[in-house]
Amino acid sequence: MASSMINGAENLKLTCGKAPTGLVFLGSNFHGGCLPNKGIVSFGRISYVKTLAPRCNLAASRPASQPRFIQHKKEAFWFYRFLSIVYDHVINPGHWTEDMRDEALEPADLYDRKMRVVDVGGGTGFTTLGIVKHVDAKNVTILDQSPHQLAKAKLKEPLKECNIIEGDAEDLPIEYWPDPQRGIKEAYRVLKIGGIACVIGPVYPTFWLSRFFADMWMLFPKEEEYIAWFQKAGFKDVQLKRIGPKWYRGVRRHGLIMGCSVTGVKPLTGDSPLQLGPKAEDVEKPVNSFAFFLRFILGAIAATYFVIVPIYMWLKDRIVPKGMPI
């Protein structure tokens, strides 16, 4: 469910689809003009800011490189084929509310209506609706690998003037990425000096049952992992901002599908100093149909658990007196 926004990028390529003029620039013109001194790459979902690594007592998560049942792009394509039908009505109300979105976008510093924005992994356009509050829709591009999610975005009136592209930004992460460190490194590459990378994503649960289903479904990183990925990629001034539904009362033991917004500043021009080997995922490799179907079903069951959790937390908030922990 992470949404990625490009601001101040300088070298973005597309695997699929054709990039419109000025696609990757925010606050500047594609041909000529002055590039901004700062920009943002925000990926693609309680509220305070911590500088550098936050101290947390989270249980150890499975290694980021260990695949979950729905983590890679082929599984994600079919998962969102069905989830897109109810995404805006089921996922967003429980885990990615308008208040959370607006809080998460604050570090993006969307200060000019003429900025050029690319919302990578924009899905149904829910995050993009927050972006067009500050930036003219005609200057915003929504990019996603799911045509079914994008079909929902096209129906939203405020997004009618947005450029909508089906495809992935080359090597840029969407939600299902087997190597998050590579995605953060890629965010560094496409930014200009002084640009800001802002990753919005889930947080790892501490409750045992929630950990079990999180590890079945997709990658729920720990807060310390987000910070470490940024620092290893070369970012400076790394900060983490917690976000969550108000009725959770700050409780994070069950994990949140959208739980934190992490930002870092690119201090130098050029690529990241971090050197990595080949990508872990080969999307062209043939898959076993039975194994694929089994992984999809198990992953979908695990995802359903995180539809039930916010309902449970909402009921607790209604029952437990205000001011008492839940």
UniProtKB/TrEMBL annotation:
Family matches, as InterPro entries:
Methyltransf_11, MPBQ/MSBQ_MT, SAM-dependent_MTases_sf, SAM_MPBQ_MSBQ_MT
By its UniProt entry, which PROSITE patterns does this protein fall under?
Answer: SAM_MPBQ_MSBQ_MT
The record's listing under CDD domains reads: AdoMet_MTases
Q: Which GO terms describe its molecular function?
A: 2-methyl-6-phytyl-1,4-benzoquinone methyltransferase activity
Tell me, what's a Pfam family for it? Methyltransf_11
Span of domain MPBQ/MBSQ family SAM-binding methyltransferase profile:
68-263
Q: Name the UniProt key words of this record, in alphabetical order.
A: Membrane, Methyltransferase, S-adenosyl-L-methionine, Transferase, Transmembrane, Transmembrane helix
Residue ranges of the region described as SAM motif I: 117-126
Q: Which residues cross the membrane?
A: 190-209, 292-315
| Origin superkingdom | Eukaryota
Q: Name one GO biological process term.
A: methylation
Tell me the segments the record calls region SAM motif III.
189-202
User: Does Membrane show up as a keyword for this record?
Assistant: yes
Family per similarity comment: Belongs to the class I-like SAM-binding methyltransferase superfamily. MPBQ/MBSQ MT family.
- Put simply, this protein is called MPBQ/MBSQ family SAM-binding methyltransferase profile domain-containing protein
Native species of this protein?
Rhododendron griersonianum
